[in-house]
Amino acid sequence: QVQLVESGGGLVQAGGSLRLSCVASGSIVSINRMGWYRQAPGKQRELVASITSGGSTSFTDSVKGRFTISRDNAKNTVYLKMNSLKPEDTAVYYCNADLYIMDLSRNNYWGQGTQVTVSS
Question: What is the pLDDT of residue 104?
């Protein structure tokens, strides 16, 4: 069984910063891509940022230059550093991981989500 546990969300004023963390645990052999998604009320879940096992990153246009994504492969952890936050960044942020487990099957997992609220 695999679990993804996010932390680091909260309430912040516009212009502030937050860092989200997501730790993957369980019967993991290796992790391919890890990513952060977000879902605001009444909107579809969208991919915010992702990072491959080799460190290649991608970002949705609205966060480019403000957010960075990184990972610590030894700790099975992915981070999302969010700077210059805007009210429109308010959403529940979800961690996602594409990984291989002990039976060598490839699976996709989601965390439970962490709320980020940016006040104006």
Answer: 83
